[in-house]
């Protein structure tokens, strides 16, 4: 099997709280009996895109396994590239592909500079098609992006979701290798389908955002009480996708004989 850990919406903001929560999550992943093959960070790495916040992220998200990050609406591509990736501070989309075993992960930058809502650019679609064309025919493919391409009945998130999701849906529907899509942005663990495949929203390590049964606009309520949470995606030998969500207690574990 292949194990993909998803960390999301860390919102590094130069305060100690979000750093400690991300460090706790990374320590949890490092201590697993079967460690992940890769860690995917689905956007909003920082709270406001400052270089110093990316320096916090670079330090807190360090691991001796691949860590792949894409921007969210709170990020800034130039600082993201320069500080987090150690690359020239260009402002074109930050897209990545990574292959582990027979799984190809394709991470798409859905951020739009200066806006909270998401969109995949023409350039990103060209890159996605080229990457899929180079992907082995018998690989499984997992897509990841920050903005969910469906409404989640989460009032704040739905107002700044992915624009033009039909185009991404057509790509997924036309490629049987794509076993699912991972998203962030929602600040809650959530599950849906999109283009007939699973769509998994990884929770935030920083805070929880309620659904419409909990919030009514213009309320803007983030719940900062819950412990950080992550998603663990298993891709089994039949290329089936199985997802576990896990809360990582800041106070550590209390083990009980089973
Ligand atoms: Fe976020």
UniProtKB/TrEMBL annotation:
Gene3D superfamilies linked: 3.60.21.10
Keywords, ordered alphabetically: Hydrolase, Iron, Metal-binding
A GO MF term: metal ion binding
InterPro entries xrefs: Calcineurin-like_PHP, CNP_phosphodiesterase-III, Metallo-depent_PP-like
Pfam family of the protein (one): Metallophos
Domain Calcineurin-like phosphoesterase: 4-188
Family to which the UniProt record says this protein belongs: Belongs to the cyclic nucleotide phosphodiesterase class-III family.
Name of protein: 3',5'-cyclic adenosine monophosphate phosphodiesterase CpdA
Gene from which the chain derives: cpdA
């Amino acid at each position: 099997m292949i194990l993909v850990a998803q960390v999301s919406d860390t919102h590094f903001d130069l305060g100690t709280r979000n750093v400690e929560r991300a460090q706790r999550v990374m320590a949890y992943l490092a201590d697993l009996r079967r460690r992940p093959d890769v860690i995917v960070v689905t956007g909003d790495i920082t709270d406001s895109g400052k270089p110093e916040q990316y320096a916090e992220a670079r330090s807190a998200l360090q691991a001796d396994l691949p860590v792949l990050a894409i921007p969210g609406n709170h990020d800034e591509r130039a600082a993201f590239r320069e500080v987090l990736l150690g690359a020239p501070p260009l402002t074109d989309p930050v897209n990545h592909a990574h292959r582990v075993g027979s799984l190809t992960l394709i991470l798409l930058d859905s951020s739009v500079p200066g806006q909270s809502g998401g969109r995949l650019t023409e350039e990103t679609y060209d890159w996605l098609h080229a990457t899929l064309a180079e992907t082995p025919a018998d690989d499984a493919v997992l897509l990841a992006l920050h903005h969910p391409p469906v409404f989640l009945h989460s009032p704040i998130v739905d107002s700044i979701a992915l624009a033009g999701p039909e185009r991404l849906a057509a790509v997924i529907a036309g490629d049987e290798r794509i076993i699912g899509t991972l998203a962030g942005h929602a600040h809650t663990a959530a599950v849906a389908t999109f283009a007939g495949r699973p769509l998994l929203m990884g929770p935030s390590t920083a805070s929880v955002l309620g659904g419409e049964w909990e919030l009514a606009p213009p309320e803007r309520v983030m719940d900062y009480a819950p412990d950080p949470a992550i998603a663990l995606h298993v891709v089994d030998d039949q290329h089936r996708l199985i997802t576990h969500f896990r809360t990582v207690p800041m106070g550590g574990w209390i083990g009980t004989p089973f």
